[in-house]
Amino acid sequence: MTNNKVPQPLPTARLAEPRRKTGGQLRLRVSATAESVLRAGHPWLFAESIRSQNRPGEMGELGVVYDRNDRFLALGLFDPSSAIRLRVLHAGKPQLVNRAFLRERLERALQRRNGLFDPQTTGFRWVHGESDGWPGLVLDRYDTTLVLKLYTAAWLPWLGELAEMIGDRLRPERLVLRLSRNAQEFARQRYGQTDGQVLRGTDPGQAVAFLETGLRFEADVARGQKTGFFLDQRENRRQVETLAGGRVVLNAFSFSGGFSLYAARGGARSVLDLDISPHALAAAERNFALNQSEVTVRQCRQERIPADAFEWLAAHPTRQFDLIALDPPSFAKREAERAGAISAYRRLAALGIHHLKPGGIILACSCSAHVSEDEFFGAVRTAAANSNRGFTELARAGQPADHPAAFAEARYLKATYLRVN
Ligand code: SAH
Fold first, then answer.
1. Is residue 175 a contact partner of residue 146, using CB atoms and an 8 Å limit?
2. Kind of pairing between the strands at 145-150 and 137-142
3. Known catalytic membership, residue 300
């Protein structure tokens, strides 16, 4: 990738502005329910819960919520374009949001990861949104590259300050900006910022390399899904390595082959990567090539098929496996899709179980925040029960420690391991 664009100056941060020239502080009054929700520490204030505000409010400015007795309740980032109108930065006593506040917040997130990773793992999450006190913001590390992903345009006016703070504290070789779709238009029009732009340092021009549990991977940080890799599945990948010895493995929704590399290192006889994206499979092939120094990886038979996993599984009823990982994309991006998602998880688990040899193990995952743990585990267990084969649930898993979940909606990742007779 070449970047011929003239680098845009970063927007100057708007910091600690207790009194704006036009109209002063943005003050919000909210419903009684929202008051108690915010008081309990929930980080989102929805538009429908706002009873009144003193003026319309601008993208990214600080909005202050006062309770019915006119006391300070919380403050956060205002986003007039989102149903989540305010993302709480602080609740409780009045608080100045300034450079020191933000630096302390970053420090807390970094401290929290202290001791979690040894030098064999250089890809992990430094900052995980709301649950780290950074609503709508993610910071991932891929060795010397850092990726800042914004899920709300409300952070854009703060970008200059953020880039400086991250650069000073972590000294990355480069800092790449990723923007969720809803933030891209505002970023481009107002600030000339684009998804995948390098904020500091040099453009890598290609995917960047990093280590996970000693395995070498590439992440396409400028264009790949999420920030280039699914860092949240590290623990399940490690688990799969321990289960894979001598096994014939299917990795459905393989993306860049994460589960497959661990299975191969763990001694799998063969791995089949199934993904609808040829781009993802090409990355999986490169990741295998990067790990040829491992004897077991070298000896593992690899197969890669670009296909819709549902269709492929239905069309190849006789292909049998000892170990199957099913890690599909989110089936419920919004609440209205929840019921459909639950039945899709059930259908997928049923298809997978059909392809398991006797005594085989299936790992079924969901990353839909809208589908609860009970609903997902229930769907997979129903599929297993309906197969009439008898099964044992071996383990369940959630999110790894670098993806903390401080409130219910943040617990998106669920995984269950079943052994089927
Ligand atoms: N397990 C992976 C992450 C999976 S992300 C890891 O550990 O890194 C989900 C993947 O599913 C994406 O790569 C996407 O291209 C793929 N995908 C989406 N819909 C699909 C479908 N219907 N059939 C097969 N693959 C699909």
1. yes
2. antiparallel
3. no
Sign of CA dihedral 249, 320, 376, 420: negative
Token readout for 201 is 């340092």
Q: Which atom of ligand 1 is nearest to the CA of 280?
A: 13
More confident residue, 14 or 109: 109
Query: For 111-141, how does the pLDDT look when each residue is reduced to its tens digit (9 = 90+)?
Result: 999 999 999 999 999 999 999 999 999 999 9
Are 137 and 79 contacting, i.e. CB atoms less than 8 angstroms apart? no
Helix (H, G, I), strand (E, B) or coil at 352: helix
User: CATH number, domain at 276?
Assistant: 3.40.50.150
CA of 345 to the centre of ligand 1 (A): 14
Going 310 to 352 to 364 to 259, the CA torsion angle's sign is negative
> Is residue 19 scored above 70 in pLDDT?
no
User: 408 and 388, same structural domain?
Assistant: yes
Using the mean position of ligand 1's atoms as its centre, give its distance from the Cα of residue 66 in Å.
44
Question: Ligand 1, atom 13: nearest CA belongs to which residue?
Answer: 255
User: What is the CATH number for 125?
Assistant: 3.30.750.80
Same domain, yes or no: 77 and 104: no
Distance CA 335, CA 337 (A): 5
Distance from C-alpha of 63 to C-alpha of 34, rounded to nearest angstrom:
15
Listing from the earlier edge strand, what are the strands of the sheet with 84-91? 44-46, 84-91, 72-78, 62-66, 26-30, 50-53
Spatial contact of 398 and 376, defined as CB atoms under 8 Å apart: no
Rounded to an integer, the average pLDDT of 232-240 is 98
Whether residue 388 sits in one domain with residue 280:
yes
Do 373 and 259 lie in one domain? The reply is yes
Residue 284 alpha carbon to ligand 1 centre in Å: 12
